[in-house]
Amino acid sequence: MTRITAHERVTASYMTWMSVRDVALLNEEQDIDFLVQKLSADVETLKLIRTTRYLGPREHVAKAGNLHLAWIYKDGNVNDQKRFENMLRISPYCFDVLLELIKDHTIFSNNSNNPQTPIEQQLAVTLYRLGRYGNGASIEDIARIAGCSEGSVENFTNRVFTAIEALHDLFVRPLTTAEKEVEKDWVEQNVGFGGLWREGWIMYDGTIVPLYAKPALNGQGYYTRKSNYGLNVQIGNAPSNLRIVDYSIGHTGSAHDQLAFEGTAAYKYPNWLFFGREFGWFDSAYTLTGRSIPIIKEPAALEPDNMAFNKTCSHLRVRSEHCMGAWKGRFQALRELRVNINSNSDHEEALRWIMVGIILHNMVIDIEGGDAGAAFHEPTEPDTEAGRAKRLELIQELAAYRATLSHHE
């Protein structure tokens, strides 16, 4: 249901009163001067309703909050710094780096004699909000924790999101040749041999970012196979450190993974993301091509060699699940997004939360490392035959490796 503002509610009430008044005066004689005067008064009243910022008395709301504890924890011992990370979802060092990166953004300059709230406080409120879901993520609860008004929470979030979005290309980018080699070595180490298998350096999968309420705009389009409402997000991540290299957002929860995947760089520009014989690993919902190798579907999956292929492939692809878990686990707002989607702009606002989460996920990995969380070509048609041949070669390599192990035993 679309939310009605206080101004719209008062305007509707006044216009209803105007109608009732005019009906009551139908039988009375009214000269032209009286009618003009009445019309002018109505116009001025409606204009006054529209231009008056506050239509009711402003009551003082007691504000205290406890977000200031984050600054105490920030300079405390190791346990205090863990408490800081629990509150704001990133370490004190990452917080300082992020603050340094966004502090000079023009969104924090209002050209006014009334300065904005300090940027570090705006950032802290936004990060705290990103780390909460369910009832604890409501604007009212966040405002009470932060010790500010509900409107300030939304303003802080919008400004910080705008500044973080400007960092997108810094943290979300294709891997370098050296970085790809690290991923290929990881695959070889986990499979037990190299060959063509090591060329699969990226894992793709889809995930649903649930919404806390059914959207008023095309609500059924957001309905998912898991009986909730959400957004379909496609993620391509490196397995060694869970870095998100490629992604696609914008599709609703009812979209098939293969359709949503068509928004990724791997689908649109495969020869820009992949070189030589490189490819990505996928689950069985995706199309087989020379650049995308999915798990084999039944009944072919029941053949012994294919079963071994699927088992080994799943052992690698579990890193997709690890990536989703690390991403949503750190920024838990993505477990149940509290955005009312009543218009196209609301849909785009929901996508901002997802994009900001991806940028921050990669930022943490760049700063802390480990699991902490050019020319374009035209899109090419899916090459199923090339993918089938590549998958067959992978199966043959695995069978040969297993035969070697059996021989040694």
TrEMBL record:
Family to which the UniProt record says this protein belongs: Belongs to the HARBI1 family.
Short name of one Pfam family: DDE_Tnp_4
Protein name (database record): DDE Tnp4 domain-containing protein
Entry's Gene Ontology cellular component terms: nucleus
Entry-linked InterPro entries: HARBI1-like (IPR045249), HARBI1_dom (IPR027806)
GO molecular function: hydrolase activity; metal ion binding; nuclease activity
Subcellular localization: Nucleus
Protein source organism: Mycena indigotica
The DDE Tnp4 domain, residue ranges: 205-362
Main location: nucleus
Cofactor(s) annotated in UniProt: a divalent metal cation
Keyword annotations: Hydrolase, Metal-binding, Nuclease, Nucleus
Top-level taxon of origin: Eukaryota
The keyword Nucleus is annotated on this UniProt entry: yes
